[in-house]
Amino acid sequence: MHDNERSPLDSPEPDGRSRREVLRTAGAAGAGLGFVALGSSSPAQAAASEASGSGAAEAGTAAAPARQGDTMIGVPFERRSTVRVGIVGLGNRGGSMIDLFLAMQGVQVVALCDPVKEKTAKAAAKVTAAGQPAPAGYVKGDHDFENLCKRGDIDFVYVATPWDWHFEMAKTAMLNGKHVGVECPIALQLDQLWELVNLSERTRRHCMQLENCCYGRNEMRVLRMAHAGKFGELLHGAGAYNHDLRGLMFDPDYYEGPWRRLWHTRLRGDLYPNHGFGPVANYMDVNRGDRVTHISSFGTPSLGLAEYRAANMPKGDPSWKESYIESDRTISLVQTAKGRVIRLEHDVSTPHPYSRINQLGGTKGVFEDYPERIYIEPDHTDDAWGDFAKYADWDHWLWKEHANPPGGHGGMDYIMVFRLMQTMRLGLVPDFDVYDAATWTSPVPLSHLSIKAKGAPQQIPDFTRGGWRKARGGVNSEKPSET
After folding, report:
1. What is the mean pLDDT of the chain?
2. What angle (nearest 5°) sits at the alpha carbon of residue 294, between those of residues 211 and 280?
3. Cis bond before residue 406 (omega within 30° of 0)
4. CA 303 to chain CA centroid, nearest Å
5. What pLDDT does residue 256 have?
6. 214 in helix, strand or coil?
């Protein structure tokens, strides 16, 4: 779930400073990132907006911007016998995910891009070893991905680079007629999320947040059970990214440059909400019959990274010039139009066993992960947790068909890539779309604003512009015919 690509913000400016340093100096606490113009709205304004169905964003903006094209809800891919893929970013994430694309029938890796030539060469060797023609390589600087996107023989661009580049690369891919899938988060500003929505609608290209946690075995099992009513009427859920990354963020070899750690000098909110938010949003049919309306966030002091630096980094290390403002733990409460509540947490700066929480509760019971456990009526009584393994019959067809999938993160990466490539080959509607991408990522800027406003609710835009009211399919799919 991490990438270690070199960031363009490390390239030098004429005065010798890196672009990253210029941004950080001009944009302390988010000001230089375009957040100052985004105000906070009162609960009354949020309620009035929801009642009117206007889809208004946070205060300081009016209703949702006018459409530039028809909705992408329910729009299928074009059917094709072979999906031709271009990969941008070949660090930790991209360098491993290429193995999964090469494992798929009907998929050809046509082009590769990374400014580190050795990484591109290593990935190209994997392509030829898999019996495919040698891919084109794009290694001439930070913007060579633009040339990859201009190729006429690519159907899908996969982006696994530092966060700083995600928006620009997704935008470039769509403007060149390519469907695009991006690692988390898809963008970092609210106006960028709207621009991706508008571009997807205007270009008729799908733009997807490749949220692998939506394809975890437990997540997909809970999803099917929730949709079958096993939890009764859904009331609340929770998701998180609680993962101690201190050692990795200060490791000069793991991330190529300090790009991920430097985001802790810019924002105070939830930098990585997607892994927890996406699965719970699926359980609750967010954008498919319900929608999230506003978010209130609270953050602890920022102490963890500074303490780790003091204990582990020599005084001459460049990290000593950094001032961390990112809350060690961010806790957000998200409300939906149906009154449900979703709790999100983010903590990568303090000691903590890995957890995405992955909780769902309703009128008939509750599921909690890490460790997995369940309590639903009438199966369980006496306030004693039940064994979730006994519900294996509820596994999604993808996990029944691929019981022991290869690849990282317990096989969810493989399941995600398999399903995405399947929908492209067969000309199906993707399991999630640009509206999901924008919704799942919106807590990044909005939690920052809410924390600055001492927890004041921030409206979450209706990126679907009213399309959420209609029930539709998603990750809980039926197995398609391959003919």
Report:
1. 89
2. 35
3. no
4. 26
5. 81
6. helix
- Tokens describing residue 255: 């991330």
Reading the block at residue 75, the tokens are 């729009």
409 Cα distance to chain centroid? 15
pTM of the model: 0.88
Three-state secondary structure call for residue 284: coil
| The residue count for the chain | 483
| Position 25 pLDDT exceeds 90 | no
Residue 317 tokens read as: 């290390």
> What is the rounded distance in angstroms from the CA atom of residue 235 to the CA atom of residue 290?
12
Strands 107-113 and 136-138: parallel
- The number of CA neighbours under 13 Å toward the Cβ of 456 is 14
Beta strands in 71-178 (DSSP E): 83-88, 107-113, 136-138, 156-159
CA distance 317 to 229: 55
* DSSP secondary structure letter of residue 9: G
Compute CA 149 distance to the chain's CA centroid, rounded to the nearest angstrom: 22
Structural contact between residues 340 and 236, judged by C-beta atoms closer than 8 angstroms:
yes
425-455 pLDDT, tens digit per residue, is 999 999 999 999 999 999 999 999 999 999 9
Distance CA 88, CA 159 (A): 5
Which residue, chain included where needed, has tokens 């096993």? 230
Strand partners, 368: 373
